[in-house]
Design goal:
By secondary structure, the chain is mainly alpha-helical. The protein has helices spanning 2-19, 21-47, 49-83. It contains 3 helices and no strands.
Length: 84
């Protein structure tokens, strides 16, 4: 049940990401860092099998946010060229 609640927060973060276009590019580095933390969680997940399944769903949600940032990056390139 907590997993589903986190999903809603994920969508909320997307809106904030749009506001932080400049920081969005910086977030790419943080995104890769999160992957390392996720792998660390797997070890703890093995102990809590029930919680493990919930975490898996969150993992897929994070992947979608990553792809979303890529699209914003391409959009910024167009604006940069216009500014020149």
């Amino acid at each position: 049940m907590q997993g589903t609640g986190n999903r809603e927060q994920g969508t909320g973060n997307r809106l904030q990401v749009t506001g932080y276009r400049e920081q969005g590019t910086g977030y790419r580095e943080q995104g890769t860092g999160y992957r390392l933390q996720v792998t660390g969680y797997r070890l703890q997940v093995t102990g809590d099998r029930e919680q493990g399944t919930g975490n898996r769903e969150q993992g897929t949600g994070n992947r979608e946010q990553g792809t979303g940032n890529r699209e914003q990056g391409t959009g910024y390139r167009e604006q940069v060229t216009g500014y020149r």
